[in-house]
Design a protein that fits this description.
Layout (H helix, E strand, L loop, with lengths): L41 E7 L6 E6 L5 E3 L5 H7 L2 H5 L13 H18 L4 E5 L5 H6 L4 E6 L2 H11 L3 E3 L12 E7 L8 H11 E12 L4 H6 L12 E2 L2 H11 L3 E5 L6 H8 L11 H11 L3 E2 L2 E2 L3 E7 L1
Parallel strand pairs: 4-5, 4-7, 5-6, 7-8
Antiparallel strand pairs: 1-2, 2-3, 3-9, 8-13, 10-13, 11-12
Helix pairs in contact: 3-9, 9-10
The protein binds zinc ion (ZN).
Zinc ion binds next to loops.
């Protein structure tokens, strides 16, 4: 379900045969109150029109949380995560990690190295583990388990890792509480309609001292503000849009005691450069390294809640 590393690809392939209009693209009938603080004070924020079915996102005037409102119906959301989504063939689709796994491994290993400075080994859960690539890398050090709502992606991960992969969501309660030392949700929380439930559930699944790692966009980043409605992160599957402020508040409310925010990510530039080679077709593509390096160092400029870019990774300890 999640796209690792770079944001998911907005793929225009097969638009005619597999677009959102073919996927029961219906909306919920009512507009919701804020899913984080339950406030009724909701104001329109953006209208996103570049997809075959436009959608709107609202902003809570109380806590600042941004969310799709009204949401696509549950049936429509389920239909997004089809085989075509994971293979990269749908209008709204995932960057199929299997094709470039050896390149993505550089970023996965870099992340695991940072995680292991805090927790060396133990039970490790990846929520939204997709094809299980990251979890497979983690299994060198940790005892892995994964949750993946897509039968297609999850069964692939299960072939790799065995029965520790559970097809479903956190709400299906696969595990006893106080079970894990590390839980990761990499580009997953934005897909959830009820992220507050997910974060509380992760808290309960973690042992005391355990670590939750979340990667999601920071909508307070100038990147998100400058691009406005054209910001690439507005996607039909993204229901919840955080800022550093709203995410940190959510984590504190769930009970997490120590929180570290990284801009743009918790590791250096080199693994990102190595990973990007998976997309290169010619020697000229190395020019992209300038852009990637520029973005990486631009992301280092932040003061309080003001950040140059929208990339962030949050480590929260129970
Ligand atoms: Zn709110």
């Amino acid at each position: 379900m999640n796209g690792r590393g770079d944001a998911m690809r907005i793929d225009t392939m097969n638009k005619s045969t597999n677009n959102l209009q073919n996927q029961n693209g219906q909306f919920e009938t009512k507009r919701d109150d804020c899913p984080l603080c339950a406030s009724h004070r909701i104001t329109p924020y953006r209208t996103i029109t570049r997809w075959s079915i436009p959608f709107t996102v609202d902003r809570c005037a109380e806590c600042g949380f941004i969310f799709m409102n009204p949401r696509f119906s549950n049936e429509a959301i389920k239909s997004f995560y089809s085989k075509d989504y994971f293979d990269g063939n749908a209008e709204y689709s995932y960057h199929d990690e299997r094709r470039k796994e050896r390149f993505a491994l550089h970023v996965w290993e870099a992340r695991l190295k940072v995680i292991r400075t805090f927790i060396r080994s133990g039970r490790f859960l990846d929520v939204g583990c997709a094809f299980g690539g990251f979890l497979s890398a983690a299994s060198r050090y940790f005892e892995p388990a994964g949750i993946e709502p897509s039968e297609y992606a999850g069964s692939h991960a299960r072939k790799k890792l065995g029965l520790q992969i559970h097809i479903g969501t956190l709400a299906d309660h696969f595990f006893p509480y106080d079970n894990f030392l590390v839980i990761t949700m990499i580009e997953v929380l934005e897909h959830m309609a009820d992220p507050a439930f997910a974060v509380k559930e992760c808290y309960r699944l973690l042992q005391k001292g355990g670590l939750l790692v979340i990667q999601t966009a920071n909508m307070d980043g100038l990147q998100a503000k400058i691009f406005g409605e054209n910001y690439a992160y507005y996607m039909p599957g993204h229901l919840s849009y955080f800022s550093k402020r709203t995410l940190v508040r959510l984590l504190l409310n769930a009970g997490f005691s120590r929180i570290k925010v990284f801009h743009p990510v918790e590791f250096g530039l080199l693994p990102k450069l190595k990973k990007s080679r998976g997309d290169f077709n010619s020697i000229l593509d190395y020019r992209r390294w300038l852009r990637i390096a520029g973005y990486h160092y631009l992301s280092k400029f932040h003061a309080g809640n003001i950040c140059a870019t929208s990339s962030m990774v949050v480590y929260a300890f129970k």
